[in-house]
Amino acid sequence: MYLKILLILFLSSISLFAHGIFYDVTEGAVNIRISTANNLSISNADVEVFAPGGNLAYARGFTDLNGNFAFMPDSGGKWHVKVIVPSDHGNHEKEFNIELNEDYKVKDFDRVPVERYLGFFSVLGIMLGVFGIFSFYREYKRKKIENRLKS
Known about the structure:
Elements: H1 2-13, E1 22-26, E2 30-35, E3 46-50, E4 57-62, E5 68-71, E6 77-85, E7 92-100, E8 106-109, H2 113-150
Antiparallel strand pairs: 1-2, 2-5, 3-4, 3-6, 6-7, 7-8
């Protein structure tokens, strides 16, 4: 019984990372790929790009079916990107910066904080889950032996 409950809880918790917006930036024409935590492309996300020091959007549009949005910068510096993904329970918004060299190549961009620690927490969660299942199973066996001895 305990194992079934744990299995159901484990399988239902896999989709907890489905919410959130992740992105990646490539060089050339600056290409931004918008995706979910489990690497599913988000199409039709509203993207606005602001030039360094600019208040008006330099480029505005929507991601394609593969979650890609590209723009051609006209200067180096820190570009600001705003992404809005509509959903049935409200908009999900993400803002980040892209640093470009003077030759318009991507120097750096803000990384998603979860991205840095996702591997560590995934391994930790799996280890704790295995330990929890082992502990419940051991306790189940112990109680089963105690009940046999009482009979």
